[in-house]
Amino acid sequence: MSNNDDAVGVLRTIRDAQTAHYLLKIESFSILSEEKIEKYESDDFEVGGYKWGLCFYPNGNKKRNGDGHISLYLVIRDTDKLPQGWEVNVQFKFFVFDHIRDKYLTIQDADGRTRRYHQMRTEWGFSKLLSLDTFEESSNGYLLDDSCLLGVEVFVVRYAGKGECLSMIKEPKGNTYTWKVDNFSAISVQSLSSESFKIGGQNWNLFLYPKGNEKAKDKSLSLFISVADSEELPLNWKFYTSFKLRVRNQDGGIHEEGQDSNWFSDSRKTWGYPNFMLLSDLTDKSSGFIVKDTLIIEVEILVMSVVKYFS
After folding, report:
1. CB contact at 8 A, 71 and 60
2. pTM
3. Organism's domain of life (predicted)?
């Protein structure tokens, strides 16, 4: 590990809002610096169920190449009360108040890095928070009447112990369902539903509009696939499915087929084709789609997402 805490890069920005967690005001900074006091450690403050403190080096942390700068560190305290093998992951921001412009200079890791506190590393910070030349230059506003105001925000990153695993499965077992619709010419209802069938662990239905739904009435056959038993699925469920819907040609000709995909959810349980095929093509006796007054419909699931939750 490099002795320079700033090796990964530092992001400096300006903001109006005051720091949320702890402020450290230092008066008579010049005396503190002249007395060669190596560091000042603040009182404890609590964030995220842990005790913390600030460690300030007015002349820089020389052990970490901080000469010519001010150094500031966030230290975890009372570690003897933490369980054996403890580990705390943290993101933090330091602040230096600009008295002239009434704004705060923020200093943080440039890459949004999470710092890992553990028994062998109980402090993290910046050995080169600001150069002393910059800090002491009166026009910058960081020192006013020999006083400065520093601060910190601490964000403890906690693992809640819950998550999910997304898998994309190609051609799940038994991925084709065939539906024979007999006495097709005698159907008088607007729509038919197949029996429920299971593919990829999910129950489905097919919906057929023999003379078209409201968008294709008396023009085309409408065909859809729909999630069955959706009320039994967990809250906010969704899954991706790529599929083919087809009307089989029973005379050895080319099947009528459409391929599509959809993220099925509680607000989008059904997906398919209002204009799957023209009724004139479907009912043409020489086309081979209706034989002995039977229509054969198939669905083939090509890809399906599966989400498993864990805790």
Report:
1. yes
2. 0.60
3. Eukaryota
